[in-house]
Amino acid sequence: MSEPLIRRINREQMCWRAVDVEQLIEQDHVARTIWDLVGGLDLEGFCAGIGCSEEAGGRRTGAIIDYKIFLKETNSSPQDWDVALAVEYKNHAAMDGLTAKGEAVRDKIMGGKQQAQQVAEKRQEIREIVSSELLQEIMLK
Description:
Strand order of the largest sheet: 1-2
Number of helices: 4
Order of helices and strands: HHEEHH
Helix content: 25-40%
């Protein structure tokens, strides 16, 4: 009789890869309860505070590829982050002059710096910015 195939999570892997998570654990595994809970969270209020739409933001110009929200399921300390907002840019050149471009979009969407500042202050009441990072995805062929 052969040994069962065990797929362990490699927490030190340095790349993203497509994985069918449904195949990683059994149908009756307790983690599926957590998946159902997280999948059922109402993030409408959270997303409403982001204040950007596909039409008004950088997607229309092609500089921004996608917006993403990551929910972190593990913490290494009480100060660790739990939700990450990410903006995927076409390339590093798309970030040239980003401040000026962002201010133009901000003014169009929100009506100016003062209105944007008021929204930012309201956001600070419901979240804490832990860090801001620039990451590069590396795709292995």
